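Morning!

As promised:
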Amino acid sequence: RKEVEQDPGPFNVPEGATVAFNCTYSNSASQSFFWYRQDCRKEPKLLMSVYSSGNEDGRFTAQLNRASQYISLLIRDSKLSDSATYLCVVNSPTANTGFQKLVFGTGTRLLVSP
Amino acid sequence: DTAVSQTPKYLVTQMGNDKSIKCEQNLGHDTMYWYKQDSKKFLKIMFSYNNKELIINETVPNRFSPKSPDKAHLNLHINSLELGDSAVYFCASSQVWGNLQETQYFGPGTRLLVL
């Protein structure tokens, strides 16, 4: 089982739609959670961190459910420029050392059409 | 521009060759990383260095040897290239090791194709 699992999509939505992505993680020792965005043939960039209390940044809302080991991202009023791959990222201890490392999901592809 | 930069951007080479990828960050960060993103877009950490010292080595074959001459540079040398090494290699950096909320900043990637 992958440590971070996401639906690969693609999610095809019209402009203005609301879309939600989900992610599950398997390592209960994971302590930090993020959503990164990766445009086609570009590098990943941090979209937002995810906090237990839930957090919002403009049209983007992230939620974390530690009991269910589940993370979500909600995008309201989708724009054409939101088309990208959204990577669920978990900061987990490495085996044997205890050092933390980022573990990436394979991403969910979003296509927003006019 | 403040950024993480990598060279070369594209690398096409034959099996069995040895090649290097260079990475530099001018963000003043202490920690640098190498990631591999395969054809299925799965991004996986390979190495992490903190202040020139190796912190994480994710069971990468010995053919891959990172070198950090100073904390602003982390290079990756690959010996005896194999077809399976074809991927996009991303360098990244973060300010401080051990801060669980630390943002990682990625370079533009090096697209390696082994023929």
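The radius of gyration of chain A is 14 Å.

Hope this helps with the figure draft.
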